[in-house]
């Protein structure tokens, strides 16, 4: 009996999930304004509420932590039972993870400084201009792969201020997250000058995560959709 109990506890421990997110309001963010958080109670946002609701519909043991994007992304990429949200689903990333979602959607938006006269009809109109972005972000990578100039930081927090001060010409961000970050930096009047590429956001799990765990996560997502909780969370954040 003792040996069997020990084996059972070991199996459960091996299935514990370590899930990371970043400060990307209003999708995921610290509830206390800190750069890092160590438990789910101190993390807020659309995707955070979705992921917590999904996990609460399962019997899985888990922790959710807020770190910078590079740290969480590389953990999810390299360690079994590790994951990261909200992660944009792309063809390039598709084979790197197992996916739960979509949790919600976002719309890529280019912001210019207050009072701009800039008119953009297509993305190519911004060739030769310097963008603010952040490292390993899907929007930043998209621009870099197509030959655009991007000054990428460790996080998006200071990019609104960089744009206001004229250190960059443009800033690429999400339609909801952009204005939120700007308000946190007391930056007003940034103007959305072009939007494109609506994408879906997911919980991305390491490829070695078991199919049993993935089935439970997908089942939890279906439960919150069936109960109306999914729609209620989106409505709460104005989607």
Q: Any idea of the CATH class of the largest domain? A: Alpha Beta
What is the approximate shape? globular
| Radius of gyration computed on alpha carbons | 19 Å
Number of strands: 10
Distance between the termini: 52 Å
SS summary, helix count: 9
Strands in their spatial order, largest beta sheet: 4-1-5-10-6-9-7-8
CATH fold group of the largest domain: D-Maltodextrin-Binding Protein, domain 2
Please trace the helix and strand order, writing H or E for each element: HEEEHEHEHEEHEHEHEHH
Low-confidence stretches: 1-13
Sheet with most strands:
8 strands, mixed
Please report which band the strand proportion falls in: under 5%, 5-15%, 15-25%, 25-35%, 35-45% or over 45%: 25-35%
Mean pLDDT: 91
Class per helix and strand makeup: alpha/beta
Helix-residue proportion:
25-40%
Please, what is the CATH homologous superfamily of the largest domain?
A: Periplasmic binding protein-like II
Tell me the domain tally: 2
User: Any idea what the CATH architecture of the largest domain is?
Assistant: 3-Layer(aba) Sandwich
Domain Solute-binding protein family 3/N-terminal: 24-238
Pfam families: SBP_bac_3
InterPro entries: Solute-binding_3/MltF_N
Protein name: Transporter substrate-binding domain-containing protein
């Amino acid at each position: 009996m003792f040996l069997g109990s020990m084996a059972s506890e070991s199996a459960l421990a091996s299935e514990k999930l370590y899930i990371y997110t970043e400060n990307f309001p209003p999708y995921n963010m610290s509830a206390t304004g800190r750069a890092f958080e160590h438990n789910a109670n101190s993390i807020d946002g659309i995707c955070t509420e979705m992921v917590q609701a999904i996990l609460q519909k399962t019997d899985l043991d888990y922790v959710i932590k807020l770190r910078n994007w590079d740290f969480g992304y590389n953990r999810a990429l390299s360690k079994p039972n590790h994951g990261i949200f909200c992660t944009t689903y792309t063809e390039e990333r598709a084979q790197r993870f197992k996916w739960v979602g979509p949790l919600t959607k976002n719309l890529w938006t280019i912001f210019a400084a207050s009072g701009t006269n800039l008119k953009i009809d297509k993305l190519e109109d911004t060739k030769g201009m310097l963008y603010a972005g952040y490292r390993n972000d899907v929007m930043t990578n998209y621009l870099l792969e197509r030959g655009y100039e991007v000054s990428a930081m460790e996080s998006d927090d200071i990019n609104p201020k960089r744009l206001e001060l004229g250190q960059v010409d443009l800033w690429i961000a999400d339609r909801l997250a952009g204005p939120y970050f700007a308000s946190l930096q007391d930056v007003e009047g940034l103007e959305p000058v072009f939007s494109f590429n609506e994408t879906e956001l997911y919980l991305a799990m390491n490829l070695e995560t078991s199919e049993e765990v993935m089935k439970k996560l997908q089942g939890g997502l279906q439960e919150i959709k069936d109960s109306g909780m999914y729609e209620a969370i989106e409505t709460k954040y104005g989607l």
